[in-house]
Structure formats: C-alpha cells, structure tokens
C-alpha cells in the first residue's frame, strides 16, 4: 500500500544515513522507478531527500534536517490514520499494523484525544451482512500472491455460470462499487483480465514465481461511455423505495406525483442488467415511458408468470 510504503521509507531514511534505490526497491518488492516516484512525493510533502550519485550513493535526508512531531498537522495525522485504520478492516496484515504503530508514534500527547476523535468520525466496513464468505479469505490469498509474485490457480464462472480453470499472474486488488476484483494476466486468455472475486472458487497459490510484465491498469471509469449509451425513461415509484432508486440517479431527477409517489427520469440501457434493476423494485415501480420499454417489461412479466403456471 502506498501510504504504508511512504511512511516506512521516511522512517528508514531517519534511521539510516543513506540507502540506495535498488535496496529500497528490494525491501518493498517494487521497481526502482516506483521508489523514485515515492521520493518525489516525500519531497513534495516538505521533507528534503537528497540523491547522492556514484558508488556508495543513494538517498538521504538533508543533513541537520529532523522531522519533529509537529511536522504533521492534526488533519494530516487524522487522514493517514483514518485511511490505514479503515484499510486494515478490509485487508488484514502485519504491515498495516506496523504502519499504524509508526504513524501513532508521531502523535504528541496533547493532540492524541483530538486526533482519535477525528479518526473515529468515519468508519468503513465493507464486510457483507450475508452472502459469499470466501471473499475475506480469498483477499488474504491474493494479497500474499501479490506480495510474493506467485501464480494463482482457480475456477472462474462467467455471468452464465460456465466454469473454466484459470491460472493468472496477480497485479492489483480492486474495490469497485463495494465489490472486490483482482486484475491479473490470464495465461489461458493471454491477456489482462479483471476477475470478480465472488465468481472465483478453488483459489490456490502456486509454487511457481512469475516475472512481472509491463502492467496495464484496468479501465474502471465508464462514465463517458455510459453517457453515450444511456437514455432516460420515465418511471413512477412509491416513496418507500426512494432510497434504493437514489442509488442509481440523483434527487434532481425526482418530482412529486402525489403524497405517496414520485415521477423519476431514470437512466436506462436496454439490457438484462437494467431490466433486472427495474424488476428489483417490484410492484413499487411502474414504467410509464417509452412504450417499447413498458411493452418489454410486460413480456418479461408474462414469461415469469408462465414459468410458475407450469
């Protein structure tokens, strides 16, 4: 995790007179280029790190410069602790515990209560109320494989339930819209793929190591693409499901119809996913326009009714 690595690099530079980029890269199992970017970030934060070229060279904090506990403001320490604390509830590990301990060592006694109050103002818990209990243990397995650059083998189900055996190189854990994914290079498809963890079974770390290849980050922002694909439909909803509909569109698209209902201009794409969203609202939602979407909903309802009549 970057914040953990930055804090650790600062602590190492405070303890050592000088350390090389390659040594830091080996220590944190990242590339020297990543270390150079981290050093730039530390410099931008106001800690003067010098680069000494040649044999015996490396990075060092400028002579006579010392970080005192007042360097980090209350807001700085609160933000760092808030991020690390909430991250540790999702992904457990000794490195996060160590990072938390190191950051807490910067807190002066007279600011401890104020910082603790601010840290506790936000709490993130992404563990499910119910559902797939493999998510947390699989996160731990993937994290180990990422750390050790080891291959992962698993069975993967597509959206139709078809399973295939896969082996892949892990490169990144991704949390998107409360769902966990991991991005890796699939040896079966010979390409990078984004795997949804809830669709994985029989996940195992292989003994085989892999040499990281040039990494291609996954595309996670589809706002521009969706904007060109989505249309607006008019739905009438009961006020009891307003909070659920707000997950998909802003309040400005709501207008009162009577004391119990709203008319909503709802973003929609004509595919199974969006039709299923409408069906999830049950009899609290009626599509008013356009006619062809309303007709398709009636056809699907008829097919469901037919299924239960047989």
TrEMBL record:
So where does this one cross the membrane? none
One Pfam family from the record: WCX
Q: Which InterPro entries match?
A: CBASS_pafABC_assoc_protein, DeoR_HTH, HTH_11, PafC-like, WCX_dom, WH-like_DNA-bd_sf, WH_DNA-bd_sf, WYL_dom
Q: Does the keyword Glycoprotein apply?
A: no
Q: Write down the superkingdom of origin.
A: Bacteria
Iron as a keyword of this entry, yes or no, is no
Q: Indicate what this protein is called per its UniProt record.
A: YafY family transcriptional regulator
**Top-down, what is the taxonomic lineage of the species of origin?**
Bacteria, Bacillati, Bacillota, Clostridia, Lachnospirales
């Amino acid at each position: 995790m970057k914040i953990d690595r930055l804090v650790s690099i600062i602590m190492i530079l405070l303890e050592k007179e000088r350390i090389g980029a390659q040594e830091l890269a080996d220590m944190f199992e990242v590339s020297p280029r990543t270390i150079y970017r981290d050093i730039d970030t530390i410099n931008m934060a106001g800690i003067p790190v010098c680069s000494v070229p040649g044999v015996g060279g490396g990075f060092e904090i400028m002579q006579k410069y010392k970080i005192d506990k007042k360097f980090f403001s209350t807001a700085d320490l609160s933000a760092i602790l808030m991020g690390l604390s909430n991250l540790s509830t999702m992904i457990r590990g000794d490195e996060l515990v160590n990072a938390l301990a190191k950051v807490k060592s910067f807190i002066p006694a007279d600011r401890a209560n104020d910082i603790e109050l601010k840290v506790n103002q936000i709490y993130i818990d992404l563990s499910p109320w119910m559902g797939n209990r493999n998510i947390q243990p699989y996160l731990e397995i993937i994290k180990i494989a990422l750390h050790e650059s080891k291959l992962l083998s698993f069975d993967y189900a597509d959206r139709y339930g078809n399973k295939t055996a896969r082996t892949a190189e892990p490169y990144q854990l991704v949390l998107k819209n409360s769902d966990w994914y991991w991005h890796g290079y699939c040896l079966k498809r010979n390409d990078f793929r984004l795997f949804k963890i809830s669709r994985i079974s029989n996940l195992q770390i292989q003994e085989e190591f892999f040499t990281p290849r040039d990494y291609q980050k996954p595309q996670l922002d589809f706002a521009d693409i969706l904007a060109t694909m989505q249309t607006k439909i008019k739905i009438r909803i009961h006020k009891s499901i307003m909070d659920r509909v707000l997950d998909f569109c802003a309040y400005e698209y709501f207008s009162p119809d009577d004391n119990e209902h709203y008319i909503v201009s709802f973003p929609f794409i004509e595919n199974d996913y969006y039709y299923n969203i409408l069906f999830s609202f049950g009899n609290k939602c009626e599509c008013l326009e356009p006619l062809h979407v309303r007709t398709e909903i009636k056809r699907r309802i008829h097919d469901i009714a037919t299924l239960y009549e047989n």
